[in-house]
Description:
Radius of gyration: 19 Å
Structural class: alpha/beta
Number of helices: 12
Amino acid sequence: MKIHRIALIGAGAVGAYLIWGLEGAANVALTVVAEGTRKERLERDGVIINGVHYPLQVQEPSHAGPQDLIFISTKYSGLDEAIAMLTPLVGPDTLVLSLLNGVDSESRVAQAAGAEHVVHSVIRIASQRTGREVRFEPDRVIGLSFGLPDARAEDQWKTDALADLFSRTRLRWQCSDDILTDIWLKFASNIANNLPQAIIGAAAGLYLKSEHGLFLAQKLWSEVVAVAAAKGIHLAEDVLIFPGQSSTAKYSTLQDLEAGRHTDIDMFAGHMLRMAEETGIPVPYCEYTYHAIKALEERNDGLFD
């Protein structure tokens, strides 16, 4: 199978990297799928990536029709809306990559589109979003990993088709032999790195210069490790601090709070609370962090004015 028709649902920071990376790829038609005022805005304004304006082909799901590949790169709060768009986009051999940061988006997509269409994936990119512009350093992007949790010979065509596509692009990518661990590793890293920074309002130097910042990161990481083990995923005990970042870097949750946007805290600590209830594992640091960031969102919404 050759991938020619690609749909992108979600044109934020991750979507911008995909738009940039797929530009100029031979025999690839990229359509951004959106509805209502979002569709009108994207058609009118396009996106700005590293200072360059990218016009977009934008269509509603019913007009776009069946695709060879669908990327979902919305915020967690937009996943239900993205899933609702899938039916007219999914054909017999369509592949779907859900690039959200959490550990449950693939199962939610599979319930709607069918597990046979879902290839598990994770993407690692440090970016800064300001208004309509997204900036990242291409040479510092770790990139996209994809794979099948239960590798079967009859499914090999899925990863082969993706490898063939990505080899013709500017995207950084790899086919993973243990994609579930990769997904949980990023989940744990985001919780441990994103969330203390967001509450304290400090850049990444928090973990390099403050024993207290590192303490909080380790406690959050350890709670994810415990829940992951109950799910059959085994992670290292020591916290992973994002490598290669400037001490002035601000990660997505702090960026959202400073811009007055709602965060993905429901995908991070919120989902941890749900899994903790299922497994009977106490996660007090995640519980505190969840409510603290929810309160910060309420402050941004003007609730305390």
